[in-house]
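Lab manual, section 2.4: Encoding a predicted structure.

Procedure: take the sequence of the chain (160 residues), apply the prediction step described in section 2.3, and record the output as structure tokens. A sample record is shown.
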Amino acid sequence: MRSVVPGATGRMAVGAILGAILAGGVAGAAAAADFVVVASTDPAVKPGVELSGGERIAVGAGQTVRLMSASGAITTVRGGPQGAVAPRPGAAADPSRLAQLKILVDPPPTSRTFGARRSGVCPDPAHLTTLDHILTAQQAGCANQARTALQALVTAEPTP
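Recorded output:
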């Protein structure tokens, strides 16, 4: 039985493949979303959709879409004949915060309550006045209160 040990060309090919995989991962991270749709008057644009800055949104003329960044800043865009374009973000997006926000806005379907809060008291949604407070409550198992507070935060933001 003879064993084959890859030579220099085999190692170079493996290195090239690993480099391509790594580059693809970095490119995927760079293409991460900057905003989550938190409200929309256009039924075609559903809350929970992630958007990147500069991305075109198919929003009907006269309709509005409210976007929230990972920092908690809310931006309203209005649809026109060509739709609308998501603004360029002011700061780098935090993918984990956007993922949490997306779950609050558009929760996945559930049939069981694994991980539900079993002890302690959830905060009054009226006291959750920033995205940081809201996401902390969500992580503590108070998703309903966090969702209510997020809706109040979005609603309180004046529409330009």
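Check your result against the sample. Strands lie at 35-40, 50-51, 56-57, 64-69, 74-78, 84-85.
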